[in-house]
Each structure stands twice: as C-alpha cells, then as structure tokens.
Amino acid sequence: MRIHWFQHAPFEGLGAIKSWALERGHTLTCTRFHAGETAPATVDEIDWLIVMGGPMNVYQYRDYPWLRAEKRVIRDAVTANKRVLGVCLGAQLIADALGGKVYQNDEKEIGWFPVTAVPEGMESPFALPDQVVVFHWHGDTFTLPPGGVWLGRSEACEHQAFAVGEHVLGLQFHLEMTPTDVAAITTACADELKPAPHVQEASEILARSITEQAGTTVLLEWLLGVLEGD
C-alpha cells in the first residue's frame, strides 16, 4: 500500500510503524509540516493516511496555518474510504475534522498508564484488550465524532480511542514509540513534566519504555494488521 504520513514535530516520527510498514512491502511518503512542507492536493495517490502527534493544539491556526489544509486532507481521506490512523494529536485532528470537539482535558496525562476497554467497543474490529498499559503524552482530549465508536478509557481521560467503521482509527496514546522515541519526546518536552496526579517523572518514563515495550509492540502490530486487512 501507499502510506502517506503527516509529521508535526521532528521528535515525533513513525517509530515502530516505519519498520512494520517497510517489512511488509508498503511504500512510505511524508509531509513534514514543521519543515514547511504542504499537504497533498488530493488523496488519489494515497491508500493509507497516518497522522502523528505533536505539541500544538488543533485550533492554533494563527501559529500553524497548515492545520486547515491538513484537516481537509483527513476529511477527504475518510470520505474516499482510505485507511486513516491518528495518534495523539492525530486522533484529535481526525475527531475534529469529522465533527467532534477537541478541548482541554481536566488533567495532563504523561507517562505509562493503563487503558481499559469499554463495552461500546467490544464489537468493533479494533476492540482493545480488557486492560493494557500504554504511553501517554497529552493535555487535550476529544468527543467522539459522528459515527465514532468508543474503544477505551483511562482514569485520567475518558476518550482514549475510537473507530469509525473499519478503516479509521484514532488513538490518544502512543503504541509506536520505541525507547529511543520516548527519550526524544522526554527531552524535547521536559518542561511539561511538572508534578501532577497523572504525570510521571522522566526517570520512570524512560525506565518503563524498556519494560513495557513488548506489550505495546504486540498491540500495535495487531491494530495495524486490522487496518491493513480488507
């Protein structure tokens, strides 16, 4: 498949998704908004759109004017029945582009915390395990877009994942980050690591990026496989 992905910050790449895609013979192209690149005019040459994370808010149009074009591409991809995966900011952008609302969560959630599956998502092909510990780095959250199926929640944030049909998946959390990726975001966004109920210290985040890696990798590969299938 022709996979195109959106990057919003140099320290948030595809992570483990890159090796998974290349090993399976998919091609990868990228729009690096942080480097001044522009969104594709159409989705005709894209089979699968992946929208990654970033430190900005989905409504920061004055600072990041390309957000409007990015949301247009997301809507076009969904309308054209392309595969669409959003991670963290990417999930928020999908929710917003499809008619949901993105807003400040009551608390920041940064570190390794469990996500619990909800009954509403049990019949979805993307149904999550009953509970899994995953990596979070977000202060915003979203309402479900029209047609969205709620998949999971955490203690700090009700909407952690959603699906729209069988080709659209939004994950508020990160499954793709390797220990190297976790180290990069922990360094780049160190100013956000202020004591709070759901914010872990850097030392714990980095240590657990190694011990938790196997479980998140298995879940990531399973979810990508569901998206890849017919």
Features:
6 helices; 9 strands; 230 residues; Rossmann fold
N to C succession of SSEs: EHEEHEHEEEEEHHH
The CA-CA distance between the termini, in Å, is 12 Å
Report the helical percentage. 25-40%
What is the oligomer described by this structure? single chain
Query: In DSSP terms, counting alpha (H) and pi (I) runs of 4 or more, how many helices?
Result: 6
Strand content: 25-35%
Low-confidence stretches: none
Examine the secondary-structure arrangement and name the CATH architecture: 3-Layer(aba) Sandwich
Plain-language structure description:
With 230 residues, the protein is α/β, with parallel strands linked by helices. The chain has helices at residues 16-23, 66-79, 89-97, 179-188, 202-211, 213-228; strands at 2-7, 27-32, 48-51, 83-87, 102-117, 131-142, 149-153, 161-164, 168-171. It has a single domain (2-228), classed as Rossmann fold (3-Layer(aba) Sandwich), CATH 3.40.50.880. Helices cover 29% and strands 27% of the residues. Strands 2-1-3-4-9-8-7-5-6 form a nine-stranded mixed sheet, with helices on both faces. The chain is globular and about 45 Å long. The mean pLDDT is 97.
Put the structure in a nutshell:
This protein has 230 residues and is of the alpha/beta class. It has six helices and nine strands. Strands 2-1-3-4-9-8-7-5-6 form a nine-stranded mixed β-sheet, with helices on both faces.
Topology diagram in text:
Elements: E1 2-7, H1 16-23, E2 27-32, E3 48-51, H2 66-79, E4 83-87, H3 89-97, E5 102-117, E6 131-142, E7 149-153, E8 161-164, E9 168-171, H4 179-188, H5 202-211, H6 213-228
Parallel strand pairs: 1-2, 1-3, 3-4, 4-9
Antiparallel strand pairs: 5-6, 5-7, 7-8, 8-9
Helix pairs in contact: 2-3, 4-5
